Amino acid sequence: MKILKNFKSKEIIKAIKNGKVIICPTDSVYGLIADATNKKAVEKVFKIKKRKTQKPIPIFVKDLKQAKKLAKINKNHEKFLEKVWFTHPNFSKDAQKRMVKIGPKIWASKGRVTVILRPKRRFSKGIGKPKKEIGLRIPNYKIINQLLSIINRPLTGTSANISEKTASTKIKEVLKQFRNQKYQPDLVISAGNLPKSRPSLVIDLTREPPKILRA
Question: What's the structural domain count of the chain?
């Protein structure tokens, strides 16, 4: 694994376009980032995580417009997404701390919400459930948002950990999980230890009323 301590966009973008898998900081925990439209790249993500494709992973999208191309989003969905996502990302510290109420006694940081929707198209095996559901999120982290904007493709949005092991905000803990493994990420963007956080909240919008799957 090659470790980058500075954000070198050209090298990272080239790696993603060539089907590489990258460990990257996000607004929740360190994630495994790859081109979600590249079948081999997605397969590699699952091999690295030792995760079965029957347990699908969500994807990052750059904006609501891109989300609409991938999933069936009605007016009620759109209204909700404008509430919980940064549809016009603002990376100020104040914006990152904004909280939104999801349900009784349940709050989430704006942007740190994954929604389950009906897909409009087929994806690689392991990205959602064919014809049934797809998990989408617009992250609120400058590096990821820049990559999404430049590459203009959805990216895998799964945590950087071996399946069933704990996702982490600490880079040393993340790297330790993949050390000596047969399948490893190709590139690592190290931001040191991220602020303490949790994986995103997950809400199923295919149901009425919507159901919180992970708080």
Answer: 1
Domain that holds residue 172: 2-214
Q: Are 34 and 44 in contact (CB under 8 A)?
A: yes
Low-confidence ranges of the chain (pLDDT < 70): 86-111
Q: What is the largest CA-CA distance in the chain?
A: 48
- The pLDDT value recorded for residue 95 is 46
As a whole number of angstroms, the distance between CA 122 and CA 129 comes to 9
Of 142, 144, 174, the closest CA to residue 159 belongs to 174
What contacts 24+ positions apart, CB below 8 Å, involve 5-9? 5/190, 7/143, 7/189, 9/146, 9/147, 9/150
| Inter-residue contact 167 to 159 (CB < 8 Å) | yes
Element (H, E) at 135: strand 134-137
pLDDT tens sequence across 35-67: 999 999 999 999 999 999 999 999 999 999 999
Q: What is the CATH number of the domain that holds 200?
A: 3.90.870.10
165 alpha-carbon distance from chain centroid: 17
